[in-house]
Amino acid sequence: MEHTKADSSALALFRILFGCLLTNYFWKLYSSDWIHFNYEVAQIALKYDFLPWLTVAASSLRLILVVLLIASVFFTLGLVYRLSSLILVLVFTYIYLLDPCWYGIEITFPRSQTLSVPRLYD
User: Fold this and answer.
1) Where does the pLDDT of residue 90 fall: very low under 50, low under 70, confident under 90, or very high at 90 and above?
2) DSSP string covering 58-73, please?
3) What's the angle, vertex CA 115, arms to CA 51 and CA 111, rounded to 5?
4) Better-predicted residue by pLDDT, 51 or 90
5) Dist. CA 6–CA 23, nearest whole Å
6) Global pTM?
7) List of residues 6+ apart from 81 with CB closer than 8 A
8) Quick check: 77 and 17 in contact, CB under 8 A?
9) Is the dihedral of CA 91, 96, 41, 114 positive or negative?
């Protein structure tokens, strides 16, 4: 079986563009009032029924966003690529699971009962 070398420039371009998108997204979250309005001022914090222990303080969330921002810059530049991509996946999943209201998801339970969470923003 003969192995041929493939050009990896398309994959590198995808990594750079995707990393720029992630960096921009995390920078907007960090620099906006998203943390203040949703975690400092908010009176109600909805939780998933199967993840009641999942909480975070607003000051910790700022640190988490800084970690995500640094990991996305490293991802874009290709520095410590595997570790930064692992950090991005795990920490972004953690933030995604913090509040079900932001994503307008629908959770289906085993007994055909459905809980629908409306979208707050489009």
Assistant:
1) very high
2) HHHHHHHHHHHHHHHH
3) 90
4) 90
5) 28
6) 0.71
7) 74, 75
8) no
9) negative
